[in-house]
Design goal:
- The chain is α+β, with helices and mostly antiparallel strands.
- The chain folds into 2 domains: 111 residues, no CATH class; 135 residues, Heat Shock Protein 90 (2-Layer Sandwich).
- Helices cover 63% and strands 11% of the residues.
- It is built from 8 helices and 5 strands.
- The chain has a 5-stranded mixed sheet with strand order 1-2-3-5-4, with helices on one face.
- Strand 2 and strand 3 form a beta hairpin.
- 17% of the residues are buried.
Length: 323
């Protein structure tokens, strides 16, 4: 970096003003201009012109120093940590290059710290989900199972008029047990370890169709690589949240779920033909998907489809050596 760029801004402004005033003084000393005891109008005009020249020259020089700072202020206001990777152009910063370089370095640190803290938070969230799912399965599930067995015995021993009412209670209890099991499965995607990613995504699609009657078209191209458990979890959770948003908000008639590979990029696509539109800041669900994408080193896009509906795209880098 050039030495003049390391000079503090305060001293640079002082040197510019000093140089302008020194130049004006030198011109007065060397020029034949004089000021009478009683100032003449012609002399006032000359002095006014000289003052205007000094003021203009000083303004132009200061503008070359301070204008890049105005541009830098506007660029800083447009930076969003939820969209990492954006940096200010150091080559076009001029005198503000040290400040731009420092700001870019600060962004690097903030993004690294944000990624680290987000990763820790998501890992803690997954651990808590597994704990809750285990308790639902072991405690609530077993209790409801015991209630079902007791109700069956009560139905067998009760008179017909009471048995009908007990059967309704038994059916309600069975429905509650199935719902507890579904919640437990959503909290802890055990199917990832048991069935693999593609079967787990198919299970999500089948669950959506069973709950909402919305058909899901699946497109999983062959030759997809085996992923690390962390990467599989990112893909699964993003697909789960995207399909949940479809069920809650889209009012869609059809949904498309696809997983493809282009080079070393794995792409998850969830698209619907509903009434929604792309609004990446609409809620915590989309922000959660973005955080999971960043945790895996990927990128998430949420955009509107032509003709209506929303499309969610997750691009996740994978090892090129993966078969």
């Amino acid at each position: 970096m050039r030495r003049e760029l390391s000079l503090p801004l305060f001293w640079r402004v002082c040197l510019i003003n000093g140089a302008v005033f020194a130049l004006g003084t030198l011109v007065l000393v060397l020029s034949p201009a004089t000021v009478s005891e009683r100032t003449l109008w012609s002399e006032i005009v000359v002095l006014a012109i000289g003052l205007a020249v000094i003021f203009t020259l000083n303004g132009l020089l200061l503008r070359s120093i301070l204008q890049p700072l105005d541009h830098l202020t506007g660029a800083m206001a447009a930076i969003d940590l939820r969209q990492p990777g954006r940096r200010l152009d150091e080559t076009a910063a001029g005198p503000a290059t040290p400040l731009v370089a420092g700001f870019n370095a600060m962004l690097e640190r903030l993004e690294a710290e944000s990624t680290t803290s987000t990763t820790r938070a998501l890992h803690a969230q997954e651990a808590e989900r597994q704990r809750i799912a285990q308790e639902l399965h072991d405690e609530v599930g077993q209790s409801l199972t015991a209630v079902l067995l007791g109700l069956k015995q009560a139905v067998d021993a009760a008179p017909p008029e009471v048995a009908a009412e007990l059967e309704q209670v038994r059916e309600t209890t069975r429905t509650s047990l199935e719902e507890v099991r579904r919640i437990s499965q959503r909290l802890r995607p055990g199917v990832l370890a048991d069935l693999g990613l593609l079967n787990s995504l198919s299970s999500l699609a089948s669950d959506l169709t069973a709950r909402t009657a919305i058909p899901v078209t699946r497109g999983f191209l062959p030759g997809l690589p085996a992923l690390a458990p962390e990467a599989e979890l990112v893909v699964y959770r993003v697909a789960q949240e995207a399909l949940t948003n479809v069920a809650r908000h889209a009012h869609a008639d059809n949904v498309e779920l696809g997983l493809t590979r282009r080079g070393n990029i794995l792409t998850l696509r969830v698209a619907d033909d509903g009434v929604g539109g792309a609004d990446a800041t609409a809620g915590a669900g989309i922000q959660g998907m973005q955080e999971r994408a960043r945790m895996g080193g990927g990128r998430l896009q949420v955009r509107s489809r032509r003709g209506g509906g929303t499309e969610v795209l997750l691009d996740l880098p994978i090892d090129e050596a993966t078969p």
